[in-house]
């Protein structure tokens, strides 16, 4: 299995007089899951969008396998990004979405034969629950042939059953790619992540245990 490395640093992002991102360094390799926690408005989604290249910023350095990219999405089959909102067209069936989104028969069959997805193949996207939609989106993104995947709040507004399934998906796919996830659900995020960070004050703080989240005022005192 090929080993790949994603390195991110020197990111500066401001809104008006507010420094949103000022001290960011990320290094993610094949086989790793990096989890990023943070309150609303701290810049988690913005950070992923800057890395991907869908949001411009004052300064950034994005390197994949040592090669610099102004926008990571131009790097070919290197990185993909799951946004917070659904990208699935409501009027299409699940089967049609799978055929449209994935380019190889192997990946299409993998998703179509998934035990959670197979019963819904003939359903339209707008007939799925929030958890079913999110699970399908995560499954599609992780089955793209990219070295890295970024998932923005994969557990958000998802039923507990599908949170467990999404966690299993992430764990099973990290063997062949590096994965960066953001979320508010610190329990599931920390459970699935090899390294966890808290985005606060524009910087990423390494978190080894949940009591540190109390120290940073992310969680209330017990």
From TrEMBL:
The keyword ATP-binding applies. This is ABC-type lipopolysaccharide export system ATPase subunit. Gene3D superfamilies: P-loop containing nucleotide triphosphate hydrolases. One of its GO terms (molecular function) is ATP hydrolysis activity. Keywords: ATP-binding, Nucleotide-binding. The lineage of its organism: Bacteria, Pseudomonadati, Bacteroidota, Cytophagia, Cytophagales. SUPFAM superfamilies: P-loop containing nucleoside triphosphate hydrolases (SSF52540). Residues 6-219 form the ABC transporter domain.
